[in-house]
Structure to design on (276 residues):
């Protein structure tokens, strides 16, 4: 079958979007479309220009016999502001208020379209950080972790509160919850990670940062390095010193008035260089 250029461009774009951060040899496209490498290079130049113009991402060309092309997802500032604005609008509904100043977010975390957009934002922020894995604590952080991992093309590591027989041998640590000051436990299978990996930590909500600090301590047990902290919502009303300093958040919960049923939200530090 002889592919037309328009057909190649559509199929090539879909393949690149489905395989982010993956080096794809030009011979793959050349064989798939029965086309010369020179034609494939011209097609990729068109895709590259379109991606960069729309802020979708960038294509990196690696020269040499073992080279190829790699798609790096990105997001323009305008798109990021739109996504964060849509999320804040959905989150500001007074019906989401829970006792203690917390917000109901389960339905938003279960929205695959929204999570995919948010995952791309975090992936864009950490695109050059050489991330090897995404770590989160079961259960609410899992959708965010998988969304980020999908755009960085890395595995997800889920930390649990208790050991499961299907996990095999595990490593457990005790840590102090930042908000309640209670001693809690984190458990992770020994087969989950390899020594020396750079790991992005993520969760849906952060107050003092005890959970994030606990995950950092758990990484040390595996001789792994935290490469960043990505938080969906952070609380501004923190009475104690925050245990995590360097993090990136999309939304900051500034104030909750349970009596008047109002929620005050502002943008997090996503656009701030280096985060907090």
């Amino acid at each position: 079958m002889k592919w037309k250029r328009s057909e190649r461009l559509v199929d090539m774009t879909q393949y690149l979007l489905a395989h982010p951060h993956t080096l794809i040899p030009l011979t793959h496209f050349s064989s798939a479309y029965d086309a010369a490498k020179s034609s494939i290079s011209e097609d990729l130049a068109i895709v590259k220009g379109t991606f960069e113009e729309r802020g979708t991402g960038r294509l990196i060309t690696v020269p040499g016999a073992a080279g190829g092309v790699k798609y790096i997802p990105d997001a323009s500032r305008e798109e990021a502001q739109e996504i964060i604005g849509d999320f804040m609008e959905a989150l500001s509904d007074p019906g989401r208020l829970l006792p203690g100043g917390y917000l109901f977010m389960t339905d938003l975390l279960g929205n695959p379209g929204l999570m995919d957009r948010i995952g791309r934002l975090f992936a864009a922020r950490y695109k050059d950080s050489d991330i090897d894995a995404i770590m989160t604590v079961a259960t609410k952080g899992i959708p965010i972790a998988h969304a980020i991992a999908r755009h960085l093309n890395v595995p997800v590591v889920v930390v649990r509160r208790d050991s499961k027989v299907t996990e095999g041998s595990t490593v457990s640590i005790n840590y102090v919850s930042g908000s309640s000051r209670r001693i809690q436990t984190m458990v992770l299978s020994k087969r989950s990670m390899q020594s020396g990996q750079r790991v992005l930590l993520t969760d849906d909500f952060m107050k003092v940062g005890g959970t994030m600090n606990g995950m950092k301590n758990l990484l040390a047990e595996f001789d792994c390095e935290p490469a960043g902290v990505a938080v969906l919502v952070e609380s501004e009303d923190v009475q104690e010193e925050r245990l995590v300093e360097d993090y990136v958040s999309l939304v900051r919960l500034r104030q909750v008035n349970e009596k008047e049923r109002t929620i005050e939200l502002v943008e997090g530090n996503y656009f701030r260089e280096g985060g907090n």
